[in-house]
From TrEMBL:
GO terms for molecular function: RNA binding. A probable RNA chaperone. Forms a complex with KhpB which binds to cellular RNA and controls its expression. Plays a role in peptidoglycan (PG) homeostasis and cell length regulation. It is found in: Cytoplasm. Keywords: Cell shape, Cell wall biogenesis/degradation, Chaperone, Cytoplasm, RNA-binding. Pfam families: KH_KhpA-B (PF13083). Forms a complex with KhpB. This is RNA-binding protein KhpA.
């Protein structure tokens, strides 16, 4: 799932080296923390959060077969 998030986000940003995905797994959920360069945060979130919502939709759909709930936080 980390690779999927990085694959989606890397072409969107100007500084792809700063893209970092951390995973925090808990009992009933898996949380992915996406961090990008401060100048690229707006590009990942998009106008009115449209890009962030689209990324979350793809990630949630890819993890729908998992028993744990999946969350994506953009730092």
């Amino acid at each position: 799932m980390q690779a999927l998030i990085e694959t989606i986000v890397t072409p969107l940003v100007d500084q792809p080296d700063a893209v970092k995905v951390d995973v925090k797994e808990e009992e009933h959920k898996i949380v992915y923390h996406l961090s990008v360069h401060p100048d690229d945060v707006g590009k990942v979130i998009g106008k009115n959060g449209r890009i962030a919502k689209a990324i979350r939709t793809v990630v949630y759909a890819a993890g729908s077969d998992s028993e744990k709930r999946i969350y994506l936080d953009i730092m």
